[in-house]
Amino acid sequence: MRRIVLVAVLVLAAACGKPGTPPPKGPQPSALPTYRVNSADAVQGSPTLDAARGRGRLVVGAKEDQPYLGQKNPATGTYSGFDIEIAKMVAADLGFAPEQIQFRTIASANRETALQNGQVDYYVGTYTINDNRKKLVGFAGPYYIAGQGLLVRQQEQDIDGPQDLAGKKVCSAAGSTPYQRIQKDYPQATLVGYDTYSACVDNLITAQVDAVTTDDTILMGYAAKAPDELKLVGQPFSKEPYGIGTPRGDTALRAAINDALQNHEQNGDWKKAYDATLGLSGVPAPTPPPIDRY
Ligand code: GLU
Q1: Hey, which CATH number is domain 148-233, 3.40.190.10, 3.40.50.620, 3.40.50.720, 3.10.20.30?
Q2: Where in the chain is the domain with CATH 3.40.190.10?
Q3: CATH code of domain 29-145+240-281
Q4: Do β-strands 211-215 and 240-247 pair in parallel, antiparallel, or remain unpaired?
Q5: For residue 8, what pLDDT is reported?
Q6: Residue 118 DSSP symbol
Q7: 240 ligand 1 Cβ < 6 A
Q8: Which atom of ligand 1 is nearest to the CA of 218?
Q9: Measured in angstroms, how far is the CA atom of residue 16 from the centroid of ligand 1?
């Protein structure tokens, strides 16, 4: 009996760790909220939802290599993280249970085409709302505001912010807003583009590049996975309001997703989902930003 108690204490201590040190594991399923599923015909007038009901499942675009946000378990094929929870709470209000959602990984550079071609019904994956993208797709939200940051090797001394990037190799995902910002505002940096941030991080660890730049939310996840090797430096130097991408013409879908976000922000699901996912990186839940029904 005493041995069992001791083991339980040790497991608990390991799970808690030092204050500010994120636990090494991903979201714990027991801490995740469950969402009440609306009737199937709850939302009318959306061609995207009509098609989804016809095929019996919703196809949601996401990321699969962003810890705490959107991560695919290679053994089970299951996706988890804050963005995945946002996708599920919205789906519930649209009349789709979690088992009726098929997640599909889409890289940053391919999001607009995936939405335009009907490869996905909506997209939830650290997707910054901006005017250029609004010409191609619709956006519900924002549901969170991130900021661009820099990830470097633990022993790095020379890089404290974007002003120090001249002559340095900086990696980001092609087609992303952080990539575009370095290109435009810090042209002295040598910019390297990959499909994914995890490819950038591999290149940072093997010293092929000097820094990785993207949203602080994403970088915190990689730093937490390799705290002896990687660190974030400087202050966030942009605002990245995260939206849910929708097919541009489907205004009924966009309105329904905005209603769903508002509902789950008000009933506490948003905060519960944050605490069980992104909150594990040590940053307390902010107040969700106001929804922009443009
Ligand atoms: N939020 C930024 C963007 O949408 C960077 C993260 C990403 O590539 O998903 O471009």
Answers
A1: 3.40.190.10
A2: 29-145+240-281, 148-233
A3: 3.40.190.10
A4: unpaired
A5: 40
A6: T
A7: yes
A8: 6
A9: 30
